[in-house]
Amino acid sequence: MTPExxxxxxxxxxxxxxxxxxxxxxxxEKNRAAAASFCIxxxxxxxxxxxxxxxxxxxxxxxxxxxxxxxxxxxxxxxCATDEQVSAFFRGGEPPKTMVAEIxxxxxxxxxxxxxxxxxxxxxxxxxxxxxxxxxxRWQSQDCVExxxxxxxxxxxxxxxxxxxxxxxxxxxxxxxSGANGFDVLQLMKKRWP
Length: 194
What we know:
It is a single chain. The protein is an all-alpha fold and 194 residues long. It has one domain (3-111, 150-192). 70% of the residues lie in helices and 0% in strands. The protein is globular.
């Protein structure tokens, strides 16, 4: 990663944080659970940027699955979970295996993009999280064991982190008591991805 790309990622993260921090929302258990999930996703996003800056690429890739899961769980808690399911989740329960299908049955997610992302990338995300073969391959050069991540792979990891961090931020803003729609976050995303 170039210093310029890392600086741009840090700037994007700082602006996203400014737009999504200290949002006043209705204090329901459902809102608090969803917001916590989205905040965790944003923490993972920030951690990925920090790890990339320090060239801890393996750890950056390992966090992608956690970021994606935190975002999905936040969506499920916000848009799908019953009050009973939210309470059970707080007590250590798990979301249903149909979580993505339930999310995609809501109006905002009927395009199926989440299930396509999961279907296409889940195996690789798991391999990086659990030190699978794909991860081990990125530590093999012709002559020794050393980092061999391709620049385009690093860019893809950072792009995914930024995208899901921003999407989590958008969901947080939409929990606001003010009824904000997240226009400022969408503008930040359009600036980042014209």
